[in-house]
Amino acid sequence: MRQSVRIVSFVVTLLLSAIALASAQTGELAIAVATDPLTLDPRGASNVISWSLAYHIADPLVGKDKDLKIVPLLAESWDRPDPLTWRFKLRRGVKFQNGEDVTAAAVKATLDVMIDPELAKTKKIQVSAFIRGNFRTVERVEAPDPYTVIIKTKAPYRPMLLGLSQLGIAPASALDAGDAYVAHPVGAGPYKFVEYVPGSRLVLEANPTYWGAKPAFKRVTVRIIPENATRVAALQTGEVLAIYNVPPDSIDRLKANKDLVVQDTLTTRYNYLYLQNDRPPFNDKRVRLAINHALDKDQITRVIFKGLAKPATAPMGPATAFFDKSLSPYSYDVAKAKALLTEAGYPNGLKFVMGTPFGRFINDRQVAEAVVGQLAKAGFTVDLRVEEWGTSLANLMGRKYDAMFGAYGGSPDPDYMLSWLFTAKSSVVGFNKPEVDALLIEGVQAADDAAARKTYERIQKIVWDDAPLGFLYFQPDIVAYSKRLKGFGPRVDEYVDVRGARVE
Amino acid sequence: MRNVYLRQIVQAAIVLLNVSLVVFVLVRIVPGDPARLMLGMEASEDAVQAARVQFGFDRPLYVQYAQFVGGALRGDLGQSVRFRRPVGDLLRESFPATLELALAATVIALILAVPAGIYAAVHRDGVLDRLLMAGALIGQAMPIFWLGIMLITLFSVKLGWLPTSGRGSLAQLIMPSVTLSTYVMALLARLTRSNMLDVLREQYVRTARAKGLRETVIVHKHALMSAALPIVTVLGLQVGALLSGAVVTETVFNWPGIGTLALRAIQQRDYPVVQGVVLVSAALFVLINGMVDLAYRYLDPRVRLT
Prior knowledge:
The complex is a heterodimer.
Chain A: H1 2-25, E1 28-33, H2 48-57, E2 62-64, E3 70-72, E4 75-82, E5 85-90, H3 104-115, H4 117-122, H5 129-133, E6 138-145, E7 148-153, H6 160-164, H7 179-183, E8 191-197, E9 201-206, E10 219-224, H8 228-236, E11 242-243, H9 251-255, E12 260-275, H10 285-294, H11 297-304, E13 310-311, H12 334-343, E14 350-357, H13 364-377, E15 380-387, H14 389-397, E16 403-408, H15 414-422, H16 434-445, H17 449-466, E17 469-482, E18 485-486, E19 502-503
Parallel strand pairs in A: 1-10, 1-11, 14-15, 14-16
Antiparallel strand pairs in A: 2-3, 4-5, 5-7, 6-7, 8-9, 9-10, 11-17, 12-16, 12-17, 13-17, 18-19
Chain B: H1 2-29, H2 34-39, H3 45-55, H4 61-73, H5 87-122, H6 127-141, H7 144-158, H8 170-200, H9 203-211, H10 215-253, H11 258-267, H12 271-299, H13 301-305
Helix pairs in contact in B: 1-12, 5-6, 5-8, 5-10, 5-12, 6-8, 7-8, 7-10, 8-10, 10-11, 10-12, 11-12
């Protein structure tokens, strides 16, 4: 018996090392992520995992490096002849993976479907609202010659380049391909789509005709492993060389392994409580301030996030452009919170309903439960409703509860997030300040970054002081990977990115 | 005899029609909106409404239901909202994975549980009997989610013998199928034991012994044949348990079967996929129960007459 176990283990070990060796020779890379992409169509991607995976298949006109600096991709240069016009010169001789040429017509077709809802409807193309939002001021796109693209906007639009960096360019034929394109996306990126097995893996293959630096791997497998323990185990066994969404409670174990690197960064994401600003009890600023003083941010970041999260100090993630470092967090002060509540007419405390998604954000449920406990000390009685994301999202949009735990991330420019949350027209927290509405337009139309910075700092100050949210913390992006993997790490825009990675 | 088949087919059709109605209503009662989930929280209400129209979710419910049933009768289960592909294709890709897993689990359960049950019955109240039955009790009570993670920790992380997850090689099949097999293994062992005990007390067994037949012949030929009947029934009924156990097992081991597909579809409110998975699983369940009935006729001559 013992002997047969030994033989079996020997054979298995031999097989596994043979497999490992084979994969090293053929330049294969396997990584694991926690969630499926919603779609790999660059035009339809509405969350980070979707557009960052699509980013490997389809190059945008411009890209952003890990510090969010704009770099040329399909466009080799650009200028802005007047505030309403953006002109791009395309790289010549670049081909899509299906052999079609990368021309201004393809860029125009990709953009047209983003800016024209009727066209999207007729062609049955699901367009990402997030990406479309970046082009809401575009009036028309012109292609005067095969290598020139002109984007005309109705009003000056400062964040155009960051917006374009999120949109992979599809070949002209994709416009009429309908669902076939979604099932098999094609672009001019470094990796070609091979197969996608929902809930299991996405397989990519080096694009031999890529215009830029040759991709480092022949084959890239992105395994989708939602179960935290299994994902961590896959890294420990070497089945994958990197994992995203490292659960904070496994960090110590992974750090103890000398072959692995655990790295974290703060991102454009921040976590907060949505409060309904236009109805009782949170239409009273004193009650909102009481919430902010009753929240013990330090305890949450220290205990639940092992010190990797940081208490929020502004109403947007720290990696967002024009982030204001000068604001300070609301002090944790239970006495002050109680006094504010009494002043607002709730000397005996206050009861409200709060929702939270479960399994959507890192440790979401633990945070919500900690929040309930903290608020109780200041006299709030919170009726917590824990729901899975589909239900939670419906209740967020329906503004069903007085408060909700949530987060925002993925937008490197402040405009999109701030406009969504703090413009009266679209605010899901009932925020309504004409002054902020006007400033948001000013910020988006600003002629240069210096002017934009001044505007966005003012917006942050107004929003921060008004406490329309229960500000919580900046959530880190944590990745763990093998020391053999170079040119890899977490990004402040939370991208899953192996474009620059290689194995040594 | 032909009447029996006909009746079974009619019954199956009624069951499936009911299932289709229940799943159709259930997925729509649960709060959540497939269009909103697809487009994200920043999408305007106009854009979300346009998507609803494109998916056909704006039509009256009875029209949607008629389309669902009408399509299903023609073998068309509709289009996945999320994957933009026919539901039939998704099912064809993921069903074999689940069947493979369930079949391997059943085989493992049979190979281990039936001999264990027989042994325990023959050596009733012996040390091994008590150990086996205690083991069975623990096996039945153990959350398979936890068991799966423990197996991964031991065999993948500590010993490095088996891959943690995924599907493709035989090595990847071992841990998920063992995990899933505990669902039925413990039950099967206990059932085999108690049935064998009952049968071994029967008069014909005493007769066989009186005839001087060898004990192994008595146990394996005479007793096991009678004891097998309820085992087959239970195994048939456990198909449902195996399919639902597959959801958890597939999640832990990242196994791309219908459990994984169903879970993703429910999270994303991908109505056509949820409907398709449930309907096809129900059809499979009905089919296997029908086969159990037929196996019964073969194993027990008394049933043939009724």
